[in-house]
Amino acid sequence: MTPGPIRLSEGAHTALRPATTARITGGFWAARRRTNAEVSIAQGPRRLEEAGNLDNLRVAAGAKRPGFTGDFPFQDSDVHKWLEAASWQLAEEIEGTAGAAGAAEGAHGAHGAHGGELAVQVRRLTELVAAAQDPDGYLQTYYQVRPGAQRWTELHWGHELYCAGHLIQAAVAHHRATRGTELLRVAVRFADHIDATFGPGKPVDTVCGHPEIETALVELYRETGERRYLDLAAYFVDRRGQGTLGDGAEDREADRRPGAPYWQDHTPVRDATEVTGHAVRQLYLLAGAADLAAETGEDRLREALVRLWEDMAATKTYLTGGVGSRHDLEAFGDAYELPPDRAYAETCAAIASIQFCWRMALLTGEARYSDLIERTLYNGFLSGVSLDGDRWLYVNPLHLREGRTGSHGAQGARRTQWFRCACCPPNVMRLLASLPHYMASGDADGLQLHQYASGSYAAGGGAVRVGTGYPWEGRIAVVVDEVPGDGDWTLSLRVPHWADEYGAAVNGEPVAARAEDGWLRLRRRWRPGETVVLDLPPRPRLTRPDPRVDAVRGCVAIERGPLVYCLEQRDQPAGVGLDHLRLDPGTALRDRHRPELLGGVTAITAGALPSRPRPEGWWPYADTGAGAGTGPGTGTPAPAAPVEPVRVTAIPYYAWANREAGAMRVWLPV
């Protein structure tokens, strides 16, 4: 079995199950994952060393003079996320060099024989984490080495369970990748310590300010078979919303008391009607609740998850799939509060959305969750890492004004090599390293392809090979390699919600079947070697916003296939500023693949009308009615002189900010 982040129990109550084998072998995502492996993951230990994360572990292990390095108590989580990313990557390397037999050799054989430098680093950091653990299983260096810090006394901001969750996920990944138990033993000891500490009648009866432990404990249950970890996850889901965290710690300053909705402690998950508060916290909580619903089959919890996803998708998600509109508290805003220039849209929030959506896709079998995964993957997530894999965006705005080239750092719109709060880079690494897991699923009837990437996938008793130039090209060829016996078997292909036209053929013969609820289900008696071709023409199109999104009313955006496009200043004619531009929707959109541009992208040109700032008058607002005065000193600017139409160039949004700093915008006035 190809290892992945979700391995459902045999009795899980889901419509679909993850693929048993999933490999991406070519095309768009193979190239991005190669950069992730060769650049991003490879540089991880050096970045963690420079930031002091590894020294904190050495101090806790007694190998270095006491003192905590860093500004945040959750520095350890960056190490854990890197270990998870490296483990998924190591699994691929082991599989590629020795197959399943190599993995079965155990941790030493897998690390030493097949992993090269990556395996050496995984082993080194695993040993460092294990050495830092206290005898009773506790592990968070901030509270182990910082003078005056006390365990479990700062649940609002301490992130102890958050760090534990990432440790558990890293340990599960490491165990699935290598069969080694070194890191899993550390995680189990910490989980046992948490189980002895939290719950009714135990020393602590509340939740962590940052969810994450919930989804990790469910996966630990799946990995070990220990039911008490599932029960502990249920306790944390059930306890949240009971007001135990309140507005924040009483001894904190006012801005550290953001209110119960910030950490979703204002109402129980099952009763909530909208996503609210810190976006990453909310979505990690919902991912954990979805894992719990998958294992328990609870209808009420499932209904709440559907309701909250619908609120997020319909009223609080950017065109790019990004979520979290407010810089203040990194939070969801009100319904339709989606300003493009002030979008926070944290990279980690996009990752959390993908994780939540994938769990909902498995739970329900509905294609719409994978539609949103696709949109987020290609846009709001992928923009978070540079094309060279060496620089990052923490926030992902949809508009950067002229003269506001942005600043480096977490709040800036310029790519940065690392952050003081470095949650996003290793989070990107772990998602890209585990990406094959999100491509396909299976059920009793057959196999479903959720995302399109060249590779091989096995599920539902069958196996297929996919070849495609997606997203630049819309032709997807699927070869059936294996089928379960001589009976009917269903191959289901997701038809994206953006595809207003599509066609399919089996062995060259057009099929009459049409997609239902986003799935084109082809059920027949298949033979190995038969081929399906799905055609999804990725034509350029203009997209308008919901009129309730006030910030972009009267604007359109350019899209092509799953990609959202933007204008960057450097691609436009001289003298044409993005803040003084109106798109002409009556002119044709023209697309052309340009191998020399940004690593090879399909660019789109459109007709536009530039306008010049009107210097006359001091007041920028004008009366639109009859009799409005014009000219200098009257309070309204004079009409601008006529201008010649121009052709402007749009590039995929994910590729912006990879050249010199400059203006950018997604939504364009018409």
UniProtKB/TrEMBL annotation:
Domain Non-reducing end beta-L-arabinofuranosidase-like GH127 catalytic: 117-436
BP-aspect Gene Ontology terms: carbohydrate metabolic process
Residue span(s) of domain Non-reducing end beta-L-arabinofuranosidase-like GH127 C-terminal: 540-669
Family annotation (InterPro entries): 6-hairpin_glycosidase_sf, Beta-AFase-like, Beta-AFase-like_GH127_C, Beta-AFase-like_GH127_cat, Beta-AFase-like_GH127_middle
Top-rank taxon: Bacteria
Region feature Disordered, mapped onto this chain: 622-641
Domain Non-reducing end beta-L-arabinofuranosidase-like GH127 middle: 450-537
Protein name: Glycosyl hydrolase
Biological source species: Streptomyces sparsogenes DSM 40356
